[in-house]
Design a protein that fits this description.
A hairpin with a 3-residue loop joins strand 8 and strand 9. This protein has six helices and 21 strands. Among the domains are: about 240 residues, Jelly Rolls (Sandwich), CATH 2.60.120.200; about 40 residues, Calnexin lumenal domain, non-globular proline-rich hairpin domain (Ribbon). It is of the alpha+beta class. The longest helix has about 50 residues.
Length: about 400
Amino acid sequence: MLSRILLVLAVVALVSCEVFFEEKFSDDSWEDRWVYSKHPGKEFGAFKRTSGKFFNDEEADKGIQTSQDARFYALSTKFTPFSNKDKPLVIQFSVKHEQNLDCGGGYIKVFDCKLDGTEMHGESPYEIMFGSDICGPGTKKVHVIFSYKGKNHLIKKEIRCKDDVFTHFYTLIVNTDNTYEVLIDNEKVESGSLEEDWDFLPAKTIKDPEAKKPEDWDERATIPDPDDTKPEDWDKAEHIPDPDAQKPEDWDDEMDGEWEPPQIDNPEFKGEWKPKQIDNPSYKGLWKHPEIDNPEYTPDPNLYLREEVCAVGLDLWQVKSGSIFSNILFTDDSEYAKEAASESKTLQEGEKKMKDAQDEEERKKAEAESKTEEKDEDNEDLDDEEDKEEKAGDVEPSDHDEL
């Protein structure tokens, strides 16, 4: 009986979970679903479907790749609108920067239904921006940006992204209790509270504008000892005439003026006298400004909520192209997302194996070319020597008188 109940509960849980959108770019039909922006003033680059230079499974690992250097990219697609009211929101995608990205975005943007894909650009309002951003050694982070009441709010924590050349899965989970998790390759890299880690709301408390530090509040932990007195022999000159100095024999007082020995540091100089410090009997500690409830603060139990999710886009700038995006997923089932990302380790191992083989082949090729160049140089030197010998043999001997 118990087993039947558990089975029913499992089935109910399975049925209640939903995949709102999933895109693996399995074939060329993606071009019919995704729309390029035509917004004026930008030189947009094109995407191509490929598994890249190295992969684990050539067909299964295909995604869409940025294909032109120093370009903006603006591509989006719409799907059936949904809301995450009373359920988690799980956003996941994979990206491979096989070009060893030096500066550019590796994130996705989530939109409501007002998005016009043909006009999408950097200032288009979005609901969520999530994913990696790399530019030089100083910027290697994961963006988690939410729109709230018309304003974009950046996470206050620093989350480091992956900066190698292999495929990585990025996952954002937003829960109905206003908590969140960020995972990379199914490993949690950050989590916490939406209210604490973003500036959505005013502070709960503020400094009491009516409170002031009392005039007699003493914050000095120590004070000079009023009974301490300076020793009578304390005052000594900082510098004294050098007792070992002698007037030069050629010194002329009339011409050079009166001779004075040079000054040296006085070994008996003790500096400025200060009384010793003692504990302050009136010390009350550092005064803390009392706080009161902020009248402008109102808790929002729906910080997690996205009333309408309808589109996803790649709105990027890349100096060096080559990033491959795939496995874009919107669901309320974190276990489904976890299973989808479980292949990340296998992917990376396959990619690394193939890349290592390619690198070794390149190394051997470069080594062979280097030896060929050295051999050609040796042959050229030998030819030069032979030419010199031939020229020397062609010179006719000069006539000499016999002695």
